[in-house]
Model the fold of this input.
Amino acid sequence: MKYFPLLKYMVALLVIVGATCNARSQTGQKSLKELQEIAQRIHSEYFTIDTHNDTALYINNPNESSRITKGQVTFPMMKQGGLDAALFAIYIGQKGRDRESLDSATLYVRDNLDRFKVYVENFKDVSIAYNSDDLVRNKENGVTSVMLAIENGYAIGDDLSNLEMFRDMGVRAITICHNGNNNICDASMDKSGPEHNGLSDFGRDVIREMNRLGIVIDLSHASTETVFDVLEISEYPVMASHSGVYAIKNHNRNLKDNEIKAIAAKGGLIQVATGRFFLSELPKDSVTVAHIANHIDYVRNLVGIEHVGLGTDFDGGGGVVGMENASKMMNLTIELLRRGYTEEELAKFWGGNFIRFLKHQNL
Done:
């Protein structure tokens, strides 16, 4: 008799697993039209967010030449694609670290933040969101949310007070480096190799100050040593806003298994990017939504659906066949439905995880 409770538990577990497998099997057998209808309903009912694009700079500076596809995100495209919100990053490239260069970088980011905020304010039914409550309320009211971010902590120079200044301007996330080492930390793509072996002393102060101010720490572009230094210091979960899986595509910008596990263990997020160079060795016109889904599958299977989302890197190199811009976001939902993702899993993936992540940081 003492084994009876265990037997009941095992029977109940088998029933649940069987029901889940049956539901996934039925989803996989649905027609494209049926999957499209399910995807539309999911995007209508649940909060959805893209945690990284480079659109703000393109909007501010539309005539700057670039080899990268631009114009992938507009507010009407977001509506069409069922995307409720996005983190719009002001990117600053890595340059000199003399006084004049650092001051120039800070001013450049300030100016672009100011100009982009004015742009957003001129749109009806679009609003800057500063916390999770804003995101949820905007969703309920049919308002598109813009969250402000900075890509490359180089923008703060060597002055911690710039963090508070950017926070007061509305910035809620900072990618602490880009492709080159800066005063904060080492980057994964710096060809000269490590400079600080992770975080510098100044970088450690930056992480503590970001925690204090309520600015999300973004580890995309950071070296492995930097990732683990940040995780040791930060009191709050962190995210990689637009990264891929190294085990699938051997690329220095992608996250290794130990990094993914460590970020997830502290409650963080791995937001899968859509840049072809992160996803596959195939030519650009052969990389599709399925390749994005492969990276999502890998993270889910490694650390759980609670730690994965999407950071497209649109207007910064992102986009694949089938998800060329923000109007095509539902194609990814359809692909994940085909793979057996449940409605609950998709609700977490598209935005539930991010809302929970922000609340853990009192945002």
